[in-house]
Amino acid sequence: MIQEHVGVGAVKTAADANGADLSLRSICKRFADFVAVDNLDLTIPAGSFFALLGPSGCGKTTTLRMVAGLEQPTAGTISIGGKDITHTSAHERPVNTVFQNYALFPHMNVLDNVAFGLRRRKVRDAHAEARGALKLVELEHLASRRPAQLSGGQQQRVALARAIVNRPAVLLLDEPLGALDMKLRRQMQVELKNIQNEVGLTFVHVTHDQEEAMTMADTVAVMNGGRVEQLGAPQELYGLPRTAFVANFLGKSNLISGQIIEDRGDAVVVAAHGSRLIVLKDRATSHHGHVLVGIRPEKLSMLRPQDADPSAANTLSGRVADVSFTGVSTEYSVEVPGIGTMGVFSQNYGTQQVQPGENVVLNWDSAYAFGLGGDQDSRAGAGQDAG
Predict the structure, then answer these.
(1) Strand 219-224 vs strand 49-53: parallel, antiparallel, or unpaired?
(2) Which end of the chain, C or N, has fewer beta carbons within 10 A?
(3) What is the reported pTM?
(4) Which DSSP state fits 374?
(5) What does DSSP assign to residue 38?
(6) DSSP, res 2
(7) Is 227 helix (H, G, I), strand (E, B) or coil?
(8) How would DSSP label each residue in 230-253?
(9) Residue 271 and residue 259: Cα distance in Å, rounded?
């Protein structure tokens, strides 16, 4: 864990001076008859950590490549700080990219790799600035080593230092942690966020990993089919998804089909196979007709029938079909007649687990439920976590 950053004053000063909003307006990208990015509008504030999240083929990497100047938009404009860079060549843009494969020069040592861009631009004291960037990522002691002598995580830090030292207005990260093992990825997520806070650069991070995006980013744009399904803070997207795709792609959701039968002013009552479910209006995208009621598995309470009130709202009865112990929690699959399989996550407190075949009652607080339009595919986004 990075605990103290040294020698980053020059980097931060430059970032503040060059910091500017990144704006994409009506961006389209077509490859023959395939539309990769479809009329995309985005404004990414200077100094923010922004994530483009989505499954393979959603358009996130194509969007990043257009910002980098590696692809030309079919239509639309890209600007940084109000300056149109749509037709500016890649090397002339105030942008640097960190790739998944690091792209380090194997014949150069670490210090020369980091100083490479500075020396090409004939920057004075290039090695001194490069050492400052290496201090930032805690690798100054490895300055004389070659990339092949470093671990994957160390190589990624060198690539990051090389990009930061050039003081771009926007730093693009293309699946930067994809080649690392799980434990190192988690560590690097925290360290990348710390570095971004320290230097104040605008980070635009492309990933298919939901946890990675939610851990690091201030704002996440969930992409699907070349468009942004929903944009917002990670907590907002997870707690209050506005489409079935977002509800399923970000974690797991139980989506229950029903019909609104009553309006209570600040809430609606949904009839779902004999059960009455309450959805608050400010947590629903539709207030009449056919809807999907959503509830996250960890928001469900699971009780044995003798301990539950079956007449209470937001109550479903079912039978446990499967139990999976995952360490910190246990995942249950509960078959509910007329509705299907419901997922339940329960913290492990040392109490006796419910066993497969047992009858149970599920209940939840309306404050955690959300409502979606009933015309949506309740399976959209489910299982699409590889990119």
Answers:
(1) parallel
(2) N
(3) 0.87
(4) T
(5) E
(6) -
(7) strand
(8) EEE-HHHHHHS-SSHHHHHHSS--
(9) 5
Instruction: Cite the residue boundaries of each domain of the chain with CATH code 3.40.50.300.
Output: 9-239
Measuring CA to CA, how many Å separate 347 from each of 75, 326, 355? 50, 10, 15
Is 359 in contact with 273 (CB distance < 8 Å)? no
Nearest to 203, CA basis, from 216, 187, 222? 216
As a whole number of angstroms, the distance between CA 200 and CA 195 comes to 8
Mean of the per-residue pLDDT values for the chain? Answer: 89
Identify which of 48-52, 132-136, 161-165, 328-332 has the greatest average pLDDT: 48-52
- 16 pLDDT tier (thresholds 50, 70, 90): very low
First-residue to last-residue Cα distance in the chain: 28
Handedness of CA 27, 32, 36, 39 (dihedral sign): positive
The pLDDT, as a whole number, for residue 384 is 66
Indicate the SS3 state at residue 300: coil
The type of residue at 359 is N
Q: What pLDDT is attached to residue 19?
A: 52
Instruction: State the CATH architecture for 9-239.
Output: 3-Layer(aba) Sandwich (3.40)
**Helix residue spans in the chain (DSSP H):** 9-18, 60-68, 110-120, 126-136, 152-164, 182-199, 210-216, 234-239, 244-249
What percent of the chain lies above the pLDDT cut of 90?
Answer: 69
Q: Which phi-psi region, left, alpha or beta, contains residue 161 (left: φ > 0; alpha: ψ -120 to 50)?
A: alpha
Separation of alpha carbons 22 and 5, rounded Å = 27
For CATH 2.40.50.140, the residue range(s) in the chain are 252-373
Give the single-character DSSP code of 376.
S
- Nearest Cα to Cα of residue 255 among 216, 222, 297: 297
What's the topology of domain 252-373? Answer: OB fold (Dihydrolipoamide Acetyltransferase, E2P) (2.40.50)
